[in-house]
């Protein structure tokens, strides 16, 4: 009987935990006071509403409603809609910057398009692509060309306490400055801390290898925004 009660209590605890972490997109999570606004971006909440600067999770991490906001487990992500046709069956975002037309069906077709290098695909945007600078968030995770942490709006230690993972993360996209820097997150006693570091010499931080290298990373070369349709 006691064993049954313990099992029941465990079941209720797990159910609450699963419900708790399965929050929706743009909804403030009670555990973290953070709202995911896309698969990979989040805002802090004030009076239960997301507000203020937009922060991005490191490459390979998804925004979740868990107490650790950025998580590598894709199943925990709050914002779904990636790869799904929108309510009017017009398009589905495939990656942060590409989409497929749905042609009136609920399955994405082979007809794919690109948002160009400075726009992102958003599931709720009737124009499909929009500029992140104007507030459009990517529905699908980034493709490894994430722009990193904006250290003018968040300190490395605040960022590291969101990520809660030891490692090096990219900072920005300015060829001469932030492309040559990285944030290193580490556990200092029991709290997460982070520092801003410079790559040696004339090297750039490679967000895939997590090392500084001589080659200029793709995120540091600015492109021209174009909307191109390709029929494979
Ligand atoms: C980057 O540095 C180069 C050479 O030092 C300089 O010519 C260029 O104007 C700089 N670019 C920016 C955006 O500061
Ligand atoms: C680590 O934590 C201690 C105590 O909180 C603090 O004094 C110290 O400056 C921290 N070190 C770093 C590198 O953040
Ligand atoms: C970054 O590192 C990856 C993995 O080591 C490598 O394949 C890629 O070529 C590097 N990119 C640049 C721009 O150096």
TrEMBL record:
Hey, what's the signal peptide range on this chain? 1-23
Q: Name one GO molecular function term.
A: chitin binding
* Keyword terms: Signal
Q: Which domain of life is it from?
A: Eukaryota
Q: Which InterPro entries match?
A: Chitin-bd_dom, Chitin-bd_dom_sf
Keyword Signal assigned: yes
Record bears the keyword Signal: yes
| Gene Ontology cellular component list | extracellular region
Q: Which residues form a coiled coil?
A: none
Domain Chitin-binding type-2: from-to ranges = 157-222
Q: What is the lineage of its organism?
A: Eukaryota, Metazoa, Ecdysozoa, Arthropoda, Hexapoda
Q: What is the name of this protein?
A: Chitin-binding type-2 domain-containing protein
Q: Which SUPFAM superfamilies match?
A: Invertebrate chitin-binding proteins
């Amino acid at each position: 009987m006691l064993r049954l009660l313990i099992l029941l209590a465990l079941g209720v605890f797990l159910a609450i935990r699963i419900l708790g972490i399965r929050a929706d997109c743009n909804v403030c999570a009670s555990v973290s006071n953070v709202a995911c606004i896309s698969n990979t971006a989040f805002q802090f909440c004030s009076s239960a509403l997301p507000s203020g600067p937009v922060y991005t999770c490191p490459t390979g991490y998804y925004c979740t409603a868990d107490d650790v906001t950025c998580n590598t487990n894709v199943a925990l992500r709050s914002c779904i809609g990636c790869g799904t046709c929108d309510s009017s069956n017009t398009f589905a975002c495939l990656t942060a910057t590409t989409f497929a037309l749905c042609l009136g069906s609920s399955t994405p077709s082979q007809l794919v398009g690109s948002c160009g290098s400075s726009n992102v695909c958003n599931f709720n945007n009737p124009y499909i692509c929009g500029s992140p600078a104007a507030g459009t968030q990517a529905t699908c995770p980034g493709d490894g060309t994430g722009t990193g942490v904006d250290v003018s709006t968040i300190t490395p230690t605040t960022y590291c306490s969101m990520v809660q993972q030891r490692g090096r993360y990219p900072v920005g996209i300015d060829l001469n400055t932030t492309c040559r820097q990285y944030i290193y997150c580490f556990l200092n006693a029991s709290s997460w801390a982070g520092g801003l570091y410079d790559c040696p010499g004339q090297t750039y931080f490679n967000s895939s290898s997590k090392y500084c290298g001589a080659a200029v990373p793709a995120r540091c070369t600015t492109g021209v925004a174009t909307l191109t349709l390709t029929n494979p």
